[in-house]
Amino acid sequence: MKLAVLGGSFNPVHLGHIALASSVIKELGYDKIAVVPAYISPFKRRQALYKKDLAGALRPSVKDRIKMIELAIEGNFKFYCEKYEIDKEGVSYTIDTINYLYKKFSVPNEISDKPLTGKIGLIIGDDLARSFALWKDSDKIIEKTDVIVGRRGVSGMLSFDFPFIELKNRILPISSTQIRKAISEEKDFKAFVPPAVYEYIREHGLYK
């Protein structure tokens, strides 16, 4: 079983996230995508102290973020929501999650009836790839994973100072910040998120 990991705040999860992960399955033949919401991103620790984000929107609960992920991937057996970082709480580091997943999938489990084969794929956008050297134990991450870089807004050849697999994904100019800002300004955001996520956000009054 080939496993790839897509981590992030998913605040909220949007069509760009789903399209990126789907491209990994289609282009590279992965069997499962672990969507891993962070409890607190190491690059957003200061923001986590405040009830409102930089767009002025109220922060949703962890429960809301998880529910939106589950709604976004519902019915797609190749995706699952991995709650390791949420359950662990505190600052989320990728290297810890990777080590955990190697142990979890060393044997068949409720997610996969087959054990892991090969390296775990780590999916990141080209924006995050530029600061990859700043990640905790980035050298160990490179040893333990196949880093897969997807395009967020760059055309042409990608070039970074570490080995990576370049994804030929279609660029969707969508960001969670953009969505939160649109909601706080009472603008339409239906085109940016899966239908079930759109309804959940509206029903629960998130990001107001």
From TrEMBL:
Pfam families: CTP_transf_like. Its EC number is 2.7.7.18. The keyword NAD applies. Pathway: Cofactor biosynthesis; NAD(+) biosynthesis; deamido-NAD(+) from nicotinate D-ribonucleotide: step 1/1. The keyword Protein biosynthesis does not apply. GO terms for biological process: NAD+ biosynthetic process. Residues 5-181 form the Cytidyltransferase-like domain. InterPro entries: Cyt_trans-like (IPR004821), NadD/NMNAT (IPR005248), Rossmann-like_a/b/a_fold (IPR014729). GO terms for molecular function: ATP binding; nicotinate-nucleotide adenylyltransferase activity. Keywords: ATP-binding, NAD, Nucleotide-binding, Nucleotidyltransferase, Pyridine nucleotide biosynthesis, Transferase. It catalyses: nicotinate beta-D-ribonucleotide + ATP + H(+) = deamido-NAD(+) + diphosphate. Catalyzes the reversible adenylation of nicotinate mononucleotide (NaMN) to nicotinic acid adenine dinucleotide (NaAD). Belongs to the NadD family. This is Probable nicotinate-nucleotide adenylyltransferase. It comes from Treponema pedis str. T A4. The gene is nadD.
